[in-house]
Amino acid sequence: MAYLHRNTTTKAAAESGGIPHGNLTSTNVLLDENERALVADYGFIPLLAVPIAHQAMICYRSPEYQNSKKVSRKTDVWSYGGLLLELLTGRVSTYSAEKNGGGGGGGGGRVDLWNWVYRAVREEWTCEVLDAEIGVQRNGVPGMLKLLQLAMRCCEKSPEKRPEMAEVLKEVEGIKAVGESEDEEDLSMEQSLEDESISTTTTSANGG
Questions:
Q1: What is the pLDDT of residues 109-139, one digit of tens each?
Q2: Under a CB-based contact definition with an 8 Å cutoff, are residues 62 and 74 in contact?
Q3: 3-state DSSP: the chain helix, strand, coil percent, rounded to 5?
Q4: Residue 110 to residues 59, 93, 104, 130, 131: CA-CA distances in angstroms?
Q5: In CATH, what is the architecture of 2-205?
Q6: Where in the chain are the domains?
Q7: DSSP label at 163?
Q8: How far is the C-alpha of 29 from the C-alpha of 27, rounded, in Å?
Q9: Rounded to whole angstroms, how far apart are CA atoms 191 and 196?
Q10: What is the pTM of this model?
């Protein structure tokens, strides 16, 4: 997304700061054979009739899009924030609250994911919104909480308060780098403990 916003093919697009995707959803993010993310459906949204385009973005639409039906770089940022929230919580952007005492407040209603997460953060049960699979991963939670904070910033109701995609990319890469560094430190410590254990066992076996 940062690439789309930064690299343009027309003077008008360059002057406006790039061309927005306009239809970023989890179903439009694909993985190639090397597990690199590919964004599909770029540029299709202007070809759709307004009601169809509106429906296509219903789970990812920003507040200003609801009023103007116009896309911008900041509507893309909102959509990206929604996508992050889906990944972190394991829920879709609008989900059924049935059997969910924490986020629903009422039977089988529909709950906006952003509002549900915002309530969780406000009431200080943030960790409970994270997907259970994340909790069992080594060093997973701290990085996920940072991503959650970033997602909330992306989903600020005021477009001016949302970061640019270039800033989002920089923060995601920083979070990733810290996580990889911590994993390497843990592996190094485990290897050191394993070597020490082997050395102790060998010494004992030799009667030392």
A1: 556 788 888 888 888 888 888 888 876 666 6
A2: yes
A3: 60, 5, 35
A4: 11, 10, 8, 19, 19
A5: Orthogonal Bundle (1.10)
A6: 2-205
A7: P
A8: 6
A9: 9
A10: 0.66
